[in-house]
Amino acid sequence: MEQKKGTIALAAGAAALTLLAATLMIGMAMVTALVGGALPGGGCGGDGGLGGGSQAIGGAEWNAEQTENAATIVNQVVQRGLPKRAAVIAISTTIVESQLRNVGYGDRDSLGLYQQRPSQGWGTPAQILNPVGATNVFLDRLLELPGWATLPPGEAAQGVQRSAFPDKYGPQEGPAAALVDQFWVGPDNPVPAPASPAAPEVSSVASVFACPDQGGAGVPLAPSNIDPKKLPPGFTPPADPAQRAAVTYALAQLGKPYVWGAKGPDSFDCSGLMLAAWAAAGVPVPAGTVNQKTAGTPATIAQVAPGDLVFIPGSLGSPTNPRHVGMYVGNGLVVNAYDSSTGVVLQPLSDWADKVVAVRHIAGPVGRPAAAAR
Questions:
Q1: Which PANTHER family does the protein's record reference (predicted)?
Q2: Mapping DSSP to helix (H, G, I), strand (E, B) and coil, where does residue 56 land?
């Protein structure tokens, strides 16, 4: 009887310890969500991207597309030698205007992260739908405001945007500041003198990005009669205007370097090339390979159309979490920013065929069975 009591006591103790451990784990998860950390499925090993994937920052939850766009904005501010204050104003603006998403709709002809209007001199749709270009235009106009860095919360954003709802920007500076603190690297920069131009923009570098480069194509450049950095003789672009614009842009980048996080015009990573190419057609796609995996509508490799995004695991991904994307351009060819040592190249789609895990159709007519590259 005493032995049974001891066994019962031990079992009860073990159960209590298990409950305590579970409670502690839940508590730690709650603390992580409050102070910042990867959400389920997030982080560099999850939905990844420049911003570290889905995570809680400053008491708010952000998905992988939102953190990628925030990291891109901070990177542009850093590259231009501007202070943190510029990044806070820019991000607070995009939280209000688009919830940090690269959207293709808005009031009248408003587009993109900042809801900029081509008809009001903000640039072409291609510029506005590229987060790098849109951020640079926003920063250019911000720097034209006298005393922009010391204006009360929301006033500098309103001075740039001229919104019908001026009171919305100020309350978002707190969440924006938390995002900036998450991605900023190094000391703050001084406010440039009013008469001094901003530091010249340089190619994006992965100095403020939360995740390291997530790998290249991982598909060998097999010997073929296709020059990987030249358009084949007699290549015919697609007839559909949107598909033709995207394909023509992508092919014009052949030979340019691969830089992690870059979205053009001088360098690209794999998803940055896809974003810039479709922006050239006036069609928004989200930033980041993992986010682009759900863009448009699903398609199959058997009926891939020009402009479709083709996903493979890449050197550091998996079939369920692909890390590399290219664009089918027709004639049995795919263009992609291959890796940091190779740059933007053409490959036969047949070299990818047994590794393709997803195809997404973005715009234009759906495809017919793909022809083999000659």
A1: NLP_P60 DOMAIN-CONTAINING PROTEIN-RELATED, PEPTIDOGLYCAN DL-ENDOPEPTIDASE CWLO
A2: strand
Return the structure tokens found at 302: 């058997």
Give the Cα separation of 31 and 265 in Å (integer): 41
Cα–Cα distance between 66 and 286 in angstroms, integer? 9
Contacts of 344 by beta carbon, 8 Å cutoff, 6+ apart: 229, 253, 254, 255, 256, 257, 258, 268, 273, 335, 336, 337, 338
The SS3 assignment for 112 reads coil
CA separation for the pair 279, 276 (Å, rounded): 5
Contact predicate 203/262, CB 8 Å: yes
Cis check: omega of the bond before 265, within 30 degrees of 0: yes
Q: With CA atoms as reference, report the closest residue to 157 among 145, 147, 169.
A: 169
What are the pLDDT digits (tens) for 230-266? Answer: 988 889 999 999 999 999 999 999 999 999 999 999 9
206, pLDDT greater than 60:
no
For the entire predicted model, the pTM comes to: 0.86
